Amino acid sequence: MRVVIAEDSVLMRAGVQSLLADVGIETVAAVDNGDDLLLAVREHRPDLVIADVRMPPTFTNEGLRAALAARQEFPGLPVLVVSQYVEGSYAVDLIAKGAAGVGYLLKERVADVTDFLEAVRRVAGGGSAIDPEVVAQMLSRSRDPLDALTAREKEVLGLMAQGLSNAALARNLSVTQGAVENHISNIFAKLSLEAGRDENRRIRAVLTYLDSTVVRT
């Protein structure tokens, strides 16, 4: 079996690589960011990707987003997410098209090496390994689309609804314009607004916000 590991912690990355090597599983690439994960998958066409959720540069959901992009580019690519966090909306996206070849384990619950290696083999073989806590959190999410957003993303969307430009948003929030663009990109993704003209997606995001606000009041 040939594996690509995406994990920003040097110790965690080395530890997983060592565990795999002990049972004859080859790590063909070990990277620390989402962009390099995609490059490694394209180069090596691995049998399995093991990815963390939060990686540079923003440490939000880059790893999981890269894993999703890899599965879209290479349908059926087995992906095992091992993280401290449940990233609700992206976890749903990861599993939405079927749990075959998909795993999502919480690091704090991966205490048994044998269980972890069993999950690795199961996912690589087309099975699934979903942590019960991940399932519970996914099931507990309400149907309000804004529930997928962080508090900061809701704040950004609320200001977008007031008609503020990205530059005005940056000034209002005392952050860089690049940070604002990252928030908006995450909002588009979490609201499932497909790629297209940003002006159209911006309008649709604001309409979703206004619709949700009206329903709640």
Structure description:
- The protein is an alpha/beta fold and 217 residues long.
- It folds into two domains: 2-140, Rossmann fold; 145-216, Winged helix-like DNA-binding domain superfamily/Winged helix DNA-binding domain (Arc Repressor Mutant, subunit A), CATH 1.10.10.
- Helix content is 54%, strand content 13%.
- It has helices at 10-22, 34-44, 62-73, 88-96, 113-124, 132-140, 151-161, 166-173, 177-190, 198-216; strands at 2-6, 26-31, 48-51, 79-83, 102-106, 128-130.
- The protein has a six-stranded parallel β-sheet with strand order 2-1-3-4-5-6, sandwiched between helices.
- Helix 3 links the parallel strand 3 (48-51) and strand 4 (79-83).
- Helix 7 (151-161) crosses helix 10.
- It is elongated and about 55 Å long.
- It starts with a strand and ends with a helix.
Summarize the entry for a quick read.
The chain has helices at about 10-20, 35-45, 60-75, 90-95, 115-125, 130-140, 150-160, 165-175, 175-190, 200-215; strands at about 1-5, 25-30, 50, 80-85, 100-105, 130.
Keywords:
Rossmann fold; 217 residues; single chain; elongated
Helix proportion range: 40-55%
Strand elements, count: 6
Mean of the pLDDT scores?
Answer: 84
Q: What CATH first level of the largest domain would be assigned?
A: Alpha Beta
Strand order of the largest sheet: 2-1-3-4-5-6
- Oligomeric state of shown chains: single chain
Number of helices: 10
Low-confidence stretches: none
| Order of SSEs | EHEHEHEHEHEHHHHH
- Count the domains: 2
**How much strand content do the residues show?**
5-15%
Distance between the termini: 54 Å
From the 3D coordinates, which CATH architecture of the largest domain would you assign? 3-Layer(aba) Sandwich
- What Rg, in angstroms, do the CA atoms define? 19 Å
